[in-house]
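Below is how a single chain appears once it has passed through the pipeline. First comes the sequence as given, then the structure the pipeline wrote out for it. We keep one example in the README because the format questions we get most often are answered faster by looking than by reading.
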Amino acid sequence: MLDVVGTELTEADIARLTHPSTGGVILFARNFTSREQVTELVNTIHDVRNPPLPIAVDQEGGRVQRFREGFTRLPAARSILSYANNDIAQAANYARELGWLMASELRTVGVDFSFAPVLDLNYGMSVVIGDRAFGDTPDQVDSIASAWMLGARDAGMISVGKHFPGHGAVVADSHLALPIDERDKETLFKQDMQPFAKLIDQGLEGIMPAHVIYSQIDKDLAGFSFFWLQTVLRGELGFDGVIFSDDLSMKATDDTGDYPSRANAALSAGCDMVLVCNNPEAAEEVIIALEEYANPTASERCARLLGRASVSWDKLQTQDRWQKASQLAAAICAIQD
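Resulting structure:
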């Protein structure tokens, strides 16, 4: 999965998208100016290949919302529980409507899925996670996030839980450094992994592992670890959805080697799709290096990523559910501010 340069496809973009190693596209804020523009861009990307490439975006809410102007402003995940006065059941009700709202709006412009929900616990130490977490405890996160996932599913969209097995207990930001979590296996399994286990039981369609080393458990970054991806995620938790690497351009992956080495390490460990973002030259290196790579099982899983049928933006706005959900989002954002 790679990105594109701007608001329209260039010839270089098209060459990369038509390469058989390319399996999907992720959009960023730089690719968006309006609903109309991004709809045209998405349609153009979908037309490049048959079957179409799945298109993703990070549209969690709060500080991580790539499409803003013309879309409903979504609150940070942590604000939902606060708005519900720490009533988990009520927060779950709100989360389902917000998950549906996010997904239904993205589907009107043709985006297939968002890399969400965040399933990390907030331990009060990770700046990069922080208010992106639905709560501080496993019960809070798995209850609220599972409702959010069901809401997205109502709108015809799959969900991708991140960052397995849990990014919330490290200070370092893996975009900028190599985080090392020194907790033991028992603690991690009892705490951070519980939301992943619960959502997997409810049919979670995708998971993104953390660029974190859990030094008491395995020497490799989770996204490059056979233990975490195969022994634990596939074996112990029974996950059969798509495993995405986190962005191979992040600083935490530097010690793994050049970009083709990083891609091969992630795929060998068990990832179905690797992400190379914000570096077109690196993306080209990876797709060329993977020309001979084939994994029919991974391809079959990735075929499930495309969104289901959607309605137009104008029709969506007439729906009572959209009107109530957008009012809810505005009310939570007002408290959050």
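The mean pLDDT is 95.

See the next section for the split statistics.
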